[in-house]
Amino acid sequence: MTDAAREKKLAKLTALRAAFAAGLPERLEAMAACWRAAEAADPPQTVPAELIRLAHSLAGSAGTFGYRRLGDKARELEEALARSSRDLPPDAAWTARIRELIDALRPMAQVGPDDGQGVAADLMQHGNQDQALPDNRHIVLIEDDMLVAQDLATQLSMFGWEVSVFDQAAAARTALQAPWPAALVVDIALPEGPLAGLELMQQLQYPADVSVPHVVISARSDWESRLAAVRSGAAAYMVKPVDVAALATQLDRVTHRTIHVPYRVLVVDDDEMLARHYVQTLSAAGMEANALTEPARLLDVLAEHQPEIVLLDLYMPGCSGLEALRVIRQDSQYASLPVVFLSTETGLAQQQNAMKIGAEDFLTKPISDANLIMAVTVRAERFRALSMLIRQDSLTGLLNHIAFKLRLEGEIDRSRREHQPISLAMLDIDHFKKINDTYGHPVGDRVIKGLAQLLSKRLRKFDIIGRYGGEEFVVAMPNTRPALAIDIMNELRESFGKLRFESSQGEFTCTFSCGVAAALPPDNAASLVNAADDALYQAKRSGRNRVEARPA
Fold first, then answer.
1. In angstroms, how far is the first alpha carbon of the chain from the final one?
2. Topology alike, domains 138-254 and 264-391
3. Sign of CA dihedral 362, 364, 366, 371
4. Cβ pair 308, 129 in contact under 8 A
5. Is 26 a catalytic residue?
6. Do the beta carbons of residue 454 and residue 540 sit within 8 Å?
7. I need a labelling partner for 414 at 20 to 30 A (CA). Which of 41, 277, 330, 349 fits?
8. Rounded to an integer, what distance in angstroms lies between the CA atom of residue 110 and that of residue 60?
9. Does 3.40.50.300 match the CATH number of domain 138-254?
């Protein structure tokens, strides 16, 4: 998120706070009128349910908008009303107490916010989760063997990096200034000395707002070298011969090029202004948040937005939070979805009851913006991590067989609705058993990961990539006609054939065969997969290291 976008979101939070303040007189008058009507009723209505609801709503929202003392007083009123309706018979002293609490609210509101802080003062430091992917793809490689350096540069270019190569520290200095590279890859030993690479890193001075990480490569793996690299501020240390796919992964990591997909949050609260505040707070922190004030639409909204966490108010008219949670848990697909209650409820028994029927946690209103962000982040992160363990292939991080088929079915449905083409490619690493038998399974795993990395970096963001099993991969390319799909896969095939993999027996290269199927629109996922599989076998029968196509 850019600073301008974040400022815009924070401005919306400020506007919500102003709107809350502007609406306070009307809310307080509604509470006073409710009490007057109850007293004037014949017989008097001692515990008006509407007044309890209004007090509960104010107790939950006032502190969020800076009126903490007002919220505390509203909570006193709510508890006094609830206690009488539950345990104590109303009497003159109780009536006087209720009137006193209601009368105390207006002067507190007139004083204004009492938190002494602006809106979400620390949100700016939380708003980096959804940064746009950096455009800087330039790295500087400093390696005393120019042939090795050029070879690394060529292979890194296949993963999308633009590499400037130098074989001396002195020559590299000219490139280590504005415009700054995204990262440096530097050998420890250079012509200037055995530690010249690290000394260069320690001498570099960057402006306060510039951070250029460096990755150290070296033929040495001893403790002293690694410790020296740490002291130079190295972000990673790799021993030669360098696994280029692993180096590309490290560069993605240290330059923050791994895209963080915003956490998806659903806020269910009958207080529209408070729900909007929570949504704006979480949005300003880089999340994708939506609000729902009508619990009857809950299942439809869950299906549409697929949230990773639900924030649910405990007390809502027409449907309590506990009832809404039971409805959610009735659907098996939401059995593990984290649901966190947000309420003024402090009673342990009520909280324990919520936990028994499947609540993840219980957060008491008012909750500070920073604590809300932290609570949501921790729980959404854990839910996403568990979901990924189920959906991802453990070796490559790509979608596993089942997860890919589910995504493909959804994409085919979309293609059919929009009458758009879709292409499917199936890839198989040639003679992979021979690779395992010759170089060992750990090296075979590196080959698989290398191809996975190449596919991830070179294909489009909306292409769907999966590991179908063993050495076989599958790629769905929405809105792609077969001629383009064939060109894309041929380009990837040629790039993969140029990658060199290291083993104890020396370097080697390998290739893959590919089958492409396309349809406009496809009948179903099975027919598309079967056609691509047939094309793949044709590629193998025709000599391997080639791309064949079949209509679906």
1. 41
2. yes
3. negative
4. no
5. no
6. no
7. 330
8. 19
9. no
* Residue ranges per structural domain of the chain: 3-117, 138-254, 264-391, 401-551
Give the integer Cα–Cα distance in Å for 74 and 109.
11
Distance between CA atoms of 375 and 339, rounded to whole angstroms? Answer: 12
Q: What is the CATH number of domain 401-551?
A: 3.30.70.270
The catalytically annotated residue of 471, 472, 491, 502 is 471
The residue type of 57 is: S
Q: How many whole angstroms separate alpha carbon 221 and alpha carbon 188?
A: 11
The CA-atom distances, in angstroms, between 479 and each of 209, 424, 487, 550 are 41, 11, 15, 17
CATH class of 264-391: alpha beta
Q: What is the largest CA-CA distance in the chain?
A: 99
Rounded to whole angstroms, how far apart are CA atoms 177 and 180?
5
Nearest to 221 by CA among 241, 207, 235, 203: 241
- Domain 3-117 sits in CATH at 1.20.120
Instruction: Show the low-confidence residues of the chain (pLDDT under 70).
Output: 1-6, 9, 44-46, 84-90, 115-134, 257-260, 345-347, 522
pLDDT at position 227 is 95
Tens of pLDDT, residue by residue over 280-317, are 999 988 899 999 999 999 999 998 888 999 999 988 88
Q: What is the pLDDT of residue 130?
A: 39
pTM (two decimals): 0.58
Element (DSSP H or E) covering residue 541: helix 525-541
